[in-house]
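> forwarded from #structure-qc
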């Protein structure tokens, strides 16, 4: 399978919540129309949350196991896809802002806090 995006992300989120840590994701955000998936990924929803509390479904390549992206479930509103930018050539991400956020302590009531000031990929931060 493959993932193509229409543009570079505006920024990359490095999150330390348990789902992001375990998936190994570094997330760039796109609308559904900006993401093209070729092939059939395997999906996963967290088993530790009630069905009505599952807001994202993780997707990974069934051939190699790489986490490729997440999509919103029927419990979430919006048009957003998180793509794991670690699957792309690092040269394509040069200069994109990287935000290291505190997802571990985030309760969803306000934007998550940053663990450190944002930096630029390739200069201050490497994935």
């Amino acid at each position: 399978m493959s993932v193509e995006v229409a543009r570079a992300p505006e920024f990359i989120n490095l999150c330390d919540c348990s789902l992001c840590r375990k998936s190994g994701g570094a997330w760039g955000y796109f609308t559904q129309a900006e993401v093209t998936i070729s092939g059939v990924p395997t999906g996963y929803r967290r088993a530790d949350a009630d069905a009505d509390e599952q807001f994202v479904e993780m997707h990974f390549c069934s051939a190699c196991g790489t986490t490729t992206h997440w999509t919103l479930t029927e419990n979430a509103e919006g048009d957003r896809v998180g793509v794991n930018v670690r699957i792309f050539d690092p040269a394509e991400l040069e200069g994109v802002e990287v935000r290291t956020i505190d997802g571990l302590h985030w309760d969803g009531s306000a934007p998550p806090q940053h663990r450190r000031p944002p930096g630029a990929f390739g200069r201050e931060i490497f994935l």
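QC bot note: Strands lie at 2-5, 11-15, 27-30, 35-38, 42-44, 56-60, 67-72, 81-84, 97-101, 114-120. The chain has a mean pLDDT of 90.
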